[in-house]
Amino acid sequence: MNLIGDCDFPGPGTSVDLAVSGGPDSLGLLLLALDAGLTATVHHVDHHTRPASGDDARFVVAVAERFGVPCVVHDVYLEPGGNFEALARAQRRRVLPPGTLTGHTMDDLAETVLLNMMRGAGVEGLSPMVGDTTKPLRRVRRRDLHFFVVESELEARHDETNDSALYRRNRVRHELIPMMNDVAQRDVVPILARQARVLFEDRSWLDELSAGDLALGLDDADCRELSRWPEARLTRWLRVRLSTLTPEHETYPPSADEVARALRVVRGHAMACELSGGRRLARSAQRLTLD
């Protein structure tokens, strides 16, 4: 099976870092990167949260040795409590080199669209991974990648947490998407991926149009000028200015209700409003403050 044509790798000879868990997606990433003539370094993150995690690490080291590529194992330890998935992502980002390639497929993209839709995300959340150079397999289907790994005679590791209904992504993968396929009487993953690409193009154009707006800080803005902006333009600016950084270092825009309250403050219909995280947006002498 030839999947290279669906991959977005850099040119042959380029040095790349690859995140390899030992599962079929990341093994497929490694195999395809080598087929593309890249000079790869494998990185494995051991979270030490599963009894088999040490076996996973040893497996990845052995695979890297088999293909003659260097391998770095990163040991991380998660604090109890909080959002496990978000905490794990934050730890991986902390230890992996910037620009590390991951084995996310078109199916991961579709799942992320649906997860973000349920969270109430805007155009950014509905166009994930598109244009992300660290996701070179975003046009590859998961089933094709897994078959490619089987053909290579590598026996991938299985992470049992990927089967657990405790995690929302697993329910989207194993329950929601199959049900959508049944209702639509077709495979919805390519449809969701295509919609994400269309939204990404619109988003890129909007980013270009609003580049000047984003340079305007919250404290520098004059509410009289902001009130003359079209609502879509003002809403877009507020979503950026009122975004929050979680303890897991993930950026979240404000909710639609928060933006609506902020719009009332900007337009003088309210003097202040409460926002998530104990924040307060206030207006005084046509200027905004966020405490």
Please, could you describe this protein's structure?
The chain has 291 residues and is an alpha/beta fold. The protein folds into two domains: 4-184, HUPs (Rossmann fold), CATH 3.40.50.620; 213-290. 45% of the residues lie in helices and 12% in strands. The protein has helices at residues 24-35, 53-67, 84-95, 106-119, 142-151, 168-184, 189-209, 211-214, 223-226, 231-241, 256-266; strands at residues 15-19, 39-46, 71-75, 244-245, 251-252, 272-275, 279-284, 287-290. Strands 1-2-3 form a three-stranded parallel beta sheet, with helices on one face. It has a three-stranded antiparallel beta sheet with strand order 6-7-8, with helices on one face. Strand 2 (39-46), helix 2 and strand 3 form a beta-alpha-beta unit. Helix 4 packs across helix 6 (168-184), helix 4 crosses helix 7 and helix 10 (231-241) crosses helix 11. The longest helix has 21 residues, at 189-209. The protein is elongated. The mean pLDDT is 93.
